[in-house]
Amino acid sequence: MRIKRTLVLLVALLACSGTSYAEEGLVSVAGYGAPPQIEGLSGAQRRLMSMRASKLDAYRALAEMVQGFRLAGNSTVAALAVQNDSFRIYVDAYLRGARVVSMNALPEGAYETVLELDMSKLVSESSNQNNFAMRGR
Question: Where does the record locate the signal sequence feature (predicted)?
Fold first, then answer.
C-alpha cells in the first residue's frame, strides 16, 4: 500500500511539473547520447550515432516538458519486501519549431544536444492550425 501511495505521489508531482511555467517564453532542454559498444564500427560511425542519440533524447525531453507524458508503474512485493519495481514512460507529441542551440562533445565520445522552443510561437501556430482546420470542414 505504501508503494502504491508513493507512485501516486510521484505521478502527481510529475504532473505538476508540466507546462504551467512554460506556456509563455523559451523552453530549453538537454539530451545526452553515448557511443554504441558494437564491434566493427568506425570512430566516425560511433560519433555520428552518439550525436543522433543525444538529439533524439533532447526531443524526447522537450516532448515530455511541453506535452506531458503518461507514467505506468508496477511493483511486486513478497514477504514484505519489494521483489520487482518497474516504471515505463509513454510520450506522444507533435512538435514544430524546435531548434538545436548547441551540440557539444563530452568525454569518452558522448554528446550533449541542447534544444530550444519558443512557446509563444507554438501557441500561435497551433491556434492558426485549429482555425484553418475548422474552416476546412
Answer: 1-22
CA distance 70 to 3: 18
pLDDT in tens, 20-45: 344 568 999 999 999 999 999 999 99
Q: SS3 of 93, please? A: coil
Residues 27, 65 contacting (CB under 8 angstroms) = yes
Q: Which pLDDT tens digit goes with each residue over 53-74?
A: 999 999 999 999 888 888 899 9
- Residues 7-17 pLDDT 10s: 333 433 344 44
| SS3 state of residue 103 | strand
Other C-beta atoms closer than 10 Å to the C-beta of 34 total 15
Angle at 68 between CA 10 and CA 4, to 5 degrees: 20
Asked whether 112 and 31 are in contact (CB, 8 A), the reply is yes
The pTM for the full model equals 0.65
CA distances from 16 to 50, 55, 63 (A): 32, 26, 15
* Cell matching residue 120: 509563444
Task: Indicate the Cα dihedral angle 51, 57, 60, 61, nearest 10°.
Answer: -120
